[in-house]
Specification:
This protein has helices at residues 2-13, 20-23, 54-74, 82-95, 101-106, 115-131, 136-151, 164-182; strands at residues 24-27, 35-38, 43-47. It has 184 residues and is mainly alpha-helical. A hairpin with a 4-residue loop joins β2 (35-38) and β3. InterPro entries: Peptidase_M76_ATP23.
């Protein structure tokens, strides 16, 4: 998957190499949660009982790898700062493919103008409420306060990958980033 390949390489370049046998865990989970990032162990949990398709698993892995990338590069205070959590959830919803047009159509959510931003905002709020015992108003306020900056933080992709083709281009661009600087 080009999304995961790019994120794994970005993590490695940031000094946080991911080892499959150490940093991924498949478990049975409660409710309808598909996965999570455990900051205490730097481990991605995949909920094997709630993931039924490869495409869904690819999105979950990408979403959680974005959290791992944020954890590595930004030293996110996951437990005490809801704005940090909100920012990472915005980035994950924006960059993982969670809000692609096809996924939204499958959820029976349609819209044209500003729909991607609306989806990102709504999914970030839902994710916060799924992992923290805060009010909906607190989650909404945190998301609103950091939305613009975090929505526009496209690292390591450099663009919002709306498809696998976009993710492949982003991966190719990521691999070539240092070539320009090396020629100066």
């Amino acid at each position: 998957d080009p999304y995961a390949r790019l994120l794994l390489e970005a993590l490695k370049q940031s000094g946080c190499t991911v080892f499959n046998d150490r940093h991924f865990s498949c478990e049975n989970c409660d409710g309808c949660v598909s996965g999570g990032f455990d900051a205490a162990t730097s481990q991605i949990v995949l909920c094997q009982n709630n993931i039924r398709q490869q495409s869904h698993m690819n999105r979950v892995v990408t979403h959680e790898l974005i959290h791992a990338f944020d954890h590595c590069r930004a030293h996110v205070d996951w437990f005490k700062n809801v704005k940090h959590l909100a920012c990472s959830e915005i980035r994950a919803a924006n960059l993982s493919g969670d809000c692609t047009l096809m996924n939204e159509i499958a959820r029976f959510k349609f819209g044209l103008k500003g729909h991607h931003q609306t989806c990102v905002r709504d999914r970030a709020i839902r994710s916060i409420l799924a992992v923290r015992k805060v009010s909906k108003e607190t989650a909404e306020k945190a998301v609103d306060e950091v939305f613009d900056a975090c929505f526009n933080d496209l690292e390591p992709f450099g663009r919002i990958p709306h498809s696998k083709a976009d993710a492949k281009r982003a991966y190719r661009d990521f691999q070539n980033r240092d070539r320009y600087n090396a020629n100066l």
